[in-house]
Design goal:
294 residues; alpha+beta; Uridine Diphospho-n-acetylenolpyruvylglucosamine Reductase, domain 2; Uridine Diphospho-n-acetylenolpyruvylglucosamine Reductase, domain 3; 4-stranded antiparallel sheet
């Protein structure tokens, strides 16, 4: 039977009113309890019997988790802030346009209106559109569990396909993104057959701070090319502190390919993905470092 027509399996619906209540419940029920934010990943997984849940713990009744705010040094994206909220947020558009680019090419409008930005990284698919930009911006994830709060750098958050450092009794409260200097520039490029409707075959984010043709900071985030989203540190080091030329950009793009260990699947071969990492990284670096991105 097609997934669209399958009924959801039976489960008990739980709607805590506070984060503490949610943590207490999932701590007491272990793998039997699954957290629900937007549900755009969990519901299809339940329908497809990919995951089992005796309890579905809906976070949407918890006030304040949908906020997008700034303290002057960073922007905090709450666990219930939707992808559409990020795409439309005046704050994010002004200070973190790289994330707006990523949010604007995720899935369909219906999914963007329902799915959450934090949920996109918690699902931990290697092709997550939010991940390369968050890596390039050196974001941090705030987690809360029975032992208190801990903050994890985004480049240590993913542990494998669909796995993260989030413990089964923890809730991902928010993503915190440091505000970059006003002179910084960035871009997210996604290669996919149908733009936003398909998963990324390759996703590349570049963010840089440059002065008079010399970059003091460059970060490159790659998606859909390894078991987890990854950075390209060798390419970054090659570019930092040097006058940027087309030849240097080309060399850095070639170094980015060395970070890749993609799979062969129905969407693209391993060889094609590696070729496209070079092409897409060179294009992104050219836009940011030589032409001037957003």
């Amino acid at each position: 039977m097609p997934l669209f027509y399958r009924r959801l399996p039976r489960f008990e619906y739980v709607s805590p009113g506070t984060v503490d209540e949610a943590i207490a419940f999932i701590s007491g029920h272990g793998e039997d309890a699954k957290l629900l934010a937007g549900g755009t990943d969990l519901v299809p997984q339940l329908k497809g019997r990919e995951v089992k849940a005796r309890y579905v713990v809906d976070l949407k009744a918890i006030p304040g988790l949908d906020a997008v705010s700034s303290n002057g040094t960073s922007v905090t994206i709450g666990a219930l802030a939707t992808i559409s909220t990020i795409a439309r947020s005046p704050l994010v558009n002004e200070r973190l346009p790289l994330l707006v680019q990523a949010a604007s090419v995720m899935a369909s409008p219906q999914v963007r209106n329902r799915g959450t930005f934090v949920g996109n990284i918690c699902s931990a698919v290697p092709s997550a559109d939010s991940a390369p930009g968050l890596l390039a911006l050196e974001a941090r994830v705030h987690l809360l569990g029975p032992g208190g709060e801990r903050i994890v750098a985004i480049d240590r958050f993913f542990t494998g396909p669909r796995t993260t450092v989030v413990a089964r009794d923890e809730v991902a409260l928010a993503i915190e993104v440091p505000l970059p200097p006003a002179v910084s520039r960035g871009v997210y490029l996604k290669l996919s057959p149908r733009h936003s409707m398909d998963l990324a075959v390759v996703g590349v984010a570049v963010h840089a701070v440059c002065d008079n043709g010399v970059c003091t900071r460059v970060r490159i985030g790659l998606g859909a090319v390894a078991p987890t989203p990854v950075r390209a540190p060798v390419a970054e080091s090659l570019l930092e502190g040097r006058a940027i030329t087309p030849e240097l950009v080309d060399e850095a793009a070639r170094h980015s390919v060395t970070q890749c260990s993609p799979i062969d699947d129905h969407r693209a071969s391993q060889e094609y993905r590696c070729d496209m990492v070079y092409v897409m990284t060179r294009r992104a670096l050219t836009q940011v470092l030589l032409e001037g991105g957003k």
